[in-house]
Design brief:
Layout lengths: L2 H4 L6 E6 L5 H15 L5 E4 L7 H15 L3 E6 L5 H13 L4 E5 L20 H10 L5 E6 L10 H15 L2 E4 L5 H13 L6 E2 L1 E2 L5 H11 L5 H9 L4 H21 L4 E5 L5 H12 L10
Parallel strand pairs: 1-2, 1-9, 2-3, 3-4, 4-5, 5-6, 6-7, 8-9
Helix pairs in contact: 5-6, 9-10, 10-11
């Protein structure tokens, strides 16, 4: 089923993001995690494309989750290292695997060089990839990325928003934000996007905090600001993983409550292939009467 149809349901859409593990044992554990999270009734899950694994692995895992586990699934696909012919082949594989949903991204080439280099006969931006998918006649439901606190390569917030407007016009059905910890950044971005004419769903992307050093590193790489109050709580829990998890669950649950209460269409959890924090957050939301499975699409 297409995610655009699921987003038109009567309740918030909760979704989980995973990445292909490096080993067969890691893959086995990942599928066990997905099985556990199925009990929480996710609207959909997504599987990323990593430079460590070929696109076929993302397609395989996405198809297994959809067809074997029975959760609607979306494949991430990047165009950072492939030309048009190769991308056409990959999207043919996705279609033939029965996958209806794709997150179209530019991505980064291997080893993340300081400057992106467009592949020979390839694409320079995700907008080009979206336009390619549409002109090739693929009928996927297409998602894209957006950046409440501005993409690191954008000249300005206005420049970043202009690129998003172009990407939406190329054929997106919904967008998911980069992770953020300041809800004000999301609501400010949402207001600017709506003023620019973007009407499609903008799903907040949230990464639960489980380890202080890890989340600080990820936030820095993502240019996501950690609010002073949260940083103070994390500093006090820095050497205590259990305390850090408790801080993270409490903060993220409150963050999700506000987002949903003020009209966000759902929450996309960046799980880092782990289930405890996401499960605890959803259970807390459920205890508050938010996100009851009967109300989910």
């Amino acid at each position: 089923m297409k995610i655009s149809d699921l987003l038109s349901g009567n309740g918030p859409a909760f979704s989980f993001e995973f990445f292909p593990p490096k080993t067969e044992e890691g893959e086995r554990r990942l599928l066990e995690t997905v099985h556990r999270l199925k009990a929480l009734g996710p609207t959909f899950v997504s599987v990323t494309k990593t430079s460590a694994k070929p696109p076929e692995k993302t397609i395989e895992l996405t198809a297994r989750i959809k067809h074997e586990i029975g959760i609607e699934a979306m494949a991430h696909m990047t165009c950072a290292t492939a030309g048009r012919d190769e991308m056409g082949r990959i999207f043919g594989l996705i279609r033939d695997a029965g996958i209806e949903n794709v997150l179209a991204l530019r991505g980064d080439p291997p080893r993340d060089p300081p400057a992106f280099v467009q592949p020979l006969d390839g694409f320079g931006h995700a907008t080009d990839l979206v336009r390619f998918i549409r002109t090739r006649g693929f009928s996927f439901c297409l998602g894209g990325a957006c950046y409440p606190e501005t993409h690191q390569e954008a000249a300005s917030p206005e420049d970043d928003l202009r690129h998003l407007v172009e990407k939406v016009a190329a054929g997106l059905d919904f967008v998911i934000t980069q992770l953020f910890y300041d809800n004000g950044a999301y609501f400010s971005f949402l207001a600017r996007a709506r003023a620019a004419g973007i009407r499609l769903p903008i799903i907040p992307g949230i990464m639960p905090i489980t380890n202080v050093a890890q989340i600080e590193r990820i936030a820095t790489l993502s240019a996501a600001r950690i609010p002073e109050g949260l940083q103070a709580d994390l500093d006090r829990a820095r050497d205590d993983d259990a305390a850090a998890l408790a801080v993270g669950v409490a903060y993220t649950a409150a963050q999700c409550e506000e987002l949903l209460a003020r009209g966000a269409p759902g929450i996309h959890f960046y799980t880092l292939n782990q289930s405890p924090a996401t499960s605890a957050i959803l259970e807390r939301l459920r205890a508050e009467g938010i996100g009851s499975p009967a109300a989910w699409p």
